[in-house]
Design a protein that fits this description.
The protein is mainly alpha-helical and about 180 residues long. The protein has one domain: TspO/MBR protein (Ferritin, Up-down Bundle), CATH 1.20.1260.100. The protein has six helices and no strands. It is elongated, with a radius of gyration of 18 Å.
C-alpha cells in the first residue's frame, strides 16, 4: 500500500470538519440574526420604504440558512486541505468576512446605521471575493460553494443602497432597539 490514507479515510476527515463547521456557521448566523428583531418583526424596518425588488420576509431566513450551510461546507473543504499553500490566508479572509456578516444585522436592524451597513457590505464583498479566490486555488468546489454567497452579498448591497436612497432620514424614524430577541 503506497497511500498514506485511503479515500474513505480522507472523506471521513472532511465529514468530521463539516460536522463542526456547518452547525457552527449556522449557529453563529442564527445568533447574529436574533440579537435584534429583523424583517417584519422590526418596527423600524417595517416603516421603511423598500425597493420594488425586495424579497418577501420569509425568503431571508431561507436564503441565509442555505448560504450558511454552503459556507460551512466550503470552509470544511479548506480546513480539510491541511498542507495546501495559502490555506491560512484563505481561512483568515473567510473568518474576517464572516465576522463582518455577523455584525451587519445588529448594525442595520438594531442601530439603524444604513450607511455603515453599506460599508460593511462592501468590505464583506471584497473579503468574500478574496476568500473565494483563495478557496478556488485550494479546492475548486469550495469556491463554487461560495458563489451563491457572493451573489447574495451583492444583492444585499443593492437592496441596502435602495433602502438608503428611499429613506435618507431612516436613522431618525424610531429609537434604536435596546432589547434582543434572545431569551435568557
Amino acid at each position: 500500500m503506497t497511500e498514506i490514507a485511503s479515500k474513505a479515510q480522507l472523506r471521513m476527515s472532511f465529514v468530521r470538519w463539516a460536522v463542526v463547521t456547518v452547525p457552527l456557521v449556522l449557529f453563529l448566523g442564527f445568533l447574529s440574526g436574533r440579537l435584534v428583531p429583523s424583517g417584519s418583526d422590526n418596527g423600524w424596518y417595517a416603516l421603511l420604504a423598500k425597493p420594488s425588488f425586495t424579497p418577501p420576509d420569509w425568503a431571508f431566513p431561507v436564503a441565509w440558512t442555505i448560504l450558511y450551510v454552503l459556507e460551512g461546507l466550503a470552509l470544511a473543504m479548506i480546513l480539510h486541505a491541511r498542507r495546501a499553500r495559502g490555506r491560512e490566508l484563505a481561512i483568515a479572509l473567510f473568518v474576517v468576512q464572516f465576522i463582518l456578516s455577523l455584525v451587519w444585522s445588529p448594525i442595520f436592524f438594531g442601530a439603524h446605521k444604513i450607511v455603515i451597513a453599506l460599508v460593511i457590505l462592501a468590505a464583506m464583498l471584497v473579503l468574500a471575493i478574496a476568500a473565494t479566490w483563495m478557496f478556488g486555488r485550494i479546492r475548486t468546489a469550495a469556491a463554487w460553494l461560495m458563489a451563491p454567497y457572493l451573489a447574495w452579498i451583492a444583492f444585499a448591497g443593492a437592496l441596502t443602497l435602495g433602502i438608503h436612497q428611499l429613506n435618507p432620514d431612516a436613522e431618525t424614524l424610531v429609537p434604536q432597539s435596546a432589547t434582543t430577541q434572545i431569551a435568557l
